[in-house]
Amino acid sequence: MRGVFDILGPIMIGPSSSHTAGAVRLGLMAGKLLGERAVRAEILLHGSFAQTYRGHGTDKALIGGIMGFEPEDERLREALETARQTGLAYSFQAVEIPGAHPNTAVLCLTGSSGRTIRVEGASTGGGNIRISRIGDFEVHLTGKYPALVIVHRDRPGVVNKITAILARYKINIAYMKLSRRNRGQEAMMIIETDDDLFSELVEDCSAVPESIKAFAIPAIRGKEQEA
Asked: Which of 135, 167, 199 marks a domain boundary?
């Protein structure tokens, strides 16, 4: 059953929920995955995004989201100028991504420490998003739930160790996705949860011997989801 906000759409700065609100949330998610202030954003746009991004404000929405603006934030109208003033360099390029959703963007971000991340995602309608790739890993992230991301060595028993930690803290799993480059090498585990995540849990997951790094991503909740 669809909720009233699935029909009416999100509270946002217009004109389009897919091209504006969804784009803001893509930028927000990419910024959260980067984990620090972005100083460079190279953005590749596919399909409808590539054709109409200036007219529909998708460029402002993506950059605003990267800077932490929410879909209803009035500052989105001046996001490009704000980026220039605050030292966030950006560029946009139209590309063709075979099989991708029409509203797809690839965000290649560089942070203040030099850290980089490449995030591919789509605005799927009504302000909803789906992150499909982080770096070389296929993922499934919507931003509707808090998410635990663990990069780890591909070894037997890692999933059991992580889920045991979640159970100990009474955290319920809503969705889990495992991805790896090659058997026995580096892998990524993404777990979306019904409950907010906290630093002690993340630290315990980081302490698992096979873990390379672990971090939590807060849910992206607009005002319509909080009401």
From this structure: 135
